[in-house]
Amino acid sequence: MSKVVIGENYYQKLKTNKVLLEIFVVLKSLGNMKIKSSDLLEFGFKKTSIKSAIKKLLDLGILNAEIYKKFGILKLRKIVLKKPKERFWILQKKDA
């Protein structure tokens, strides 16, 4: 179980694609495990959805592009997903 704090700005960017948000939450909850895009197939995601979500996460700067290009591993960058004085949500339960 992990805790995700997401601000209004990133929520607006991620809410347009449900799979994108789900993949982000899966990567966040798995933490430092070495996850490849093929591993996400085991979670029930389709191959085309995974490819488009990875591309969007790279464009938003949420995924570490250097590690992905060198090793093919999906690793989240250590960034804060909320700005000061911005509305935000905290997801920390298993069913959230």
Could you please describe the fold and organization of this structure?
- The chain has 96 residues and is of the alpha+beta class.
- Helices cover 43% and strands 12% of the residues.
- It is built from four helices and four strands; from the N terminus they run E-H-H-E-H-H-E-E.
- The strands form two sheets. The protein has a two-stranded antiparallel ribbon. Strands 2-3 form a two-stranded antiparallel sheet.
- The protein is globular, with a radius of gyration of 13 Å.
- The mean pLDDT is 84.
Describe, in short, the structure shown.
The chain has 96 residues and is of the alpha+beta class. The chain has four helices and four strands; from the N terminus they run E-H-H-E-H-H-E-E. The chain is globular, with a radius of gyration of 13 Å.
